[in-house]
Amino acid sequence: MHMKGEDAMKRLSQDKMVAVVKELRKAKNLTQEEVSAMTGINRQMIGRLENKEYIPSIAQLEKLAELLGFDITDLFEERTPLMFTAFRSSGMSEEEQKGVNRMFEMMLASKQQLLLRKAMTK
Length: 122
What we know:
Layout: H1 4-7, E1 10-12, H2 14-27, H3 32-39, H4 43-50, H5 58-68, E2 76-78, H6 83-88, H7 94-120
Antiparallel strand pairs: 1-2
Helix pairs in contact: 3-4
């Protein structure tokens, strides 16, 4: 069964987001403290974001995009099937599984924020 809607799904790539934020912050010679002051985002949150431990809210992501000069849509990638992750999880340690579960929770929260924002802007 081919579902057209599923093919069009994209997800926020945390790897792309971290790479873009870090690279552009450094290219503009800004410290995490300076980015914090200019965006109102807590400096610790910027550090956690750059260490893949935090996904910013839509409002925070918009502030970062405006300051650093990137397009948020460039941070999305085609959604990949979850079968590989589910299959691979059987070989993970408990700590790795907790990390994966936490990442999925953050991704779902991010998706909910995007859906809410999309609904509110119509």
